[in-house]
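User: Sequence recovery, please. Input:
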């Protein structure tokens, strides 16, 4: 089965062609990140305008690279939410039009659930077994879920305020680093040389030891704001101090994520731990997970498949194949990772 995936939930415009939920025949991502770098964050209208300009060429390119025609596609899959409503509408309405004109089935896809399916894009390799624990760490979400099977996804906990990626992005802005903040903080942290600094800043690890599966990152951001103020007052807002602070931000966020994920994996005695979302592109986070002993198999996607793209949208559609008449498909900006099944 060959599925064309379409993804426009945030600032990316993406299309991919995936065979049997695993083999990537093409993966095209056009990002408007350069436009957002100028403003230091995403302006929803700018993102949606860029997506309406790029989506058709991106879809065409994905078919060309996959060396297939629209007639050879078995179905379409499109992100219906969560995300920016203007951006979602561009993808959803385009996909519905194509499904109707091409007379193909179309599968609505929850972006958060789909992130996890980057771990199924591994042809000829063992797939995660159920029950599995899923961690989705993205720009807008931090969620722990129990996957009983492909269709039963139960929410265990998540952030009470800022998401992990959002914390990276906001802290990067406080430090005067670029957008997106995650890669900028990781790059500054990599430059940090411990021996060159006397008073190292120590940040809190919010909710790390609490007996639940929730997270909270806004206090961490406030602590960083206070440290930045202190450094500025002491005329110590210099590269070496910023790099140490970046390193400590990365350590604090990753500590909490790993500790809580391990706790949940043990409590639910899962067979697999499935990691996903843009923040999983962080090399230090990946390293910490690899160094942690789990009683279950650990899966993390290649870094390039962690951030938003359409490969995992199509993969999710294959493994949980529920086409819907195109007339019934609607964008829903506030979709949750655990969906209430509508009868
Ligand atoms: O999943 P994603 O691409 O988009 C959403 O669905 O939100 O995640 C984007 C988030 C951003 O907050 C970005 O700063 C973060 O992922 N991110 C990273 C890294 N690469 C992307 N965070 C930490 N380290 C990275 N290397
Ligand atoms: Zn995402």
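Assistant: Recovered sequence (343 residues):
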């Amino acid at each position: 089965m060959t599925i064309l995936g379409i993804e426009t939930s945030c600032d990316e415009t993406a299309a991919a062609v995936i065979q049997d939920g695993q083999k990537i025949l093409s993966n095209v991502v056009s990002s408007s990140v350069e436009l957002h770098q100028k403003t230091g964050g995403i302006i929803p209208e700018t993102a949606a305008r860029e997506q309406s300009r790029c989506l058709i060429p991106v879809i065409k390119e994905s078919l060309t690279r996959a060396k297939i025609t629209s007639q050879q596609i078995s179905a379409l899959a499109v992100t219906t939410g969560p995300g920016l409503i203007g951006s979602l509408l561009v993808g959803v309405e385009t996909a519905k039009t194509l499904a109707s004109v091409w007379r193909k089935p179309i599968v609505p896809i929850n972006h958060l659930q789909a992130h996890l399916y980057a771990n199924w894009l591994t042809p000829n390799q063992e797939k995660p077994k159920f029950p599995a624990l899923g961690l989705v760490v993205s720009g807008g979400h931090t969620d722990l879920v129990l996957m009983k099977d492909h269709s039963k996804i139960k929410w265990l906990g998540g952030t009470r305020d800022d998401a992990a990626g959002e914390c990276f992005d906001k802290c990067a802005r406080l430090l005067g680093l670029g957008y997106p903040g995650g890669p900028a903080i990781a790059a500054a942290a990599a430059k940090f040389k411990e021996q060159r600094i006397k008073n190292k800043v120590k940040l809190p690890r919010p909710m790390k030891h609490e007996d639940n599966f929730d997270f909270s990152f806004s206090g961490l951001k406030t602590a960083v704001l206070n440290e930045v103020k202190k450094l500025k007052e002491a005329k110590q807002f210099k590269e070496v101090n910023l790099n140490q602070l970046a390193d400590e931000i990365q350590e604090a966020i990753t500590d909490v994520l790993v500790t809580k994920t391990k706790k949940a994996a043990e409590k639910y005695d899962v067979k697999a731990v499935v990691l996903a979302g843009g923040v999983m592109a962080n090399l230090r986070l990946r390293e910490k997970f690899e160094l942690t002993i789990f009683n279950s198999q650990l899966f993390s996607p290649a870094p390039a498949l962690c951030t938003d793209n359409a490969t995992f949208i199509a993969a999710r559609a294959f493994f949980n194949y529920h086409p819907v008449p195109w007339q019934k498909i609607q964008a829903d900006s506030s979709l949750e990772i655990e969906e209430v099944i509508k009868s």
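Residues 10, 138-140, 165, 168-169, 180-183, 186, 277-279, 281-282, 307-308 surround KG4 (ligand 1) (CB under 6 Å).
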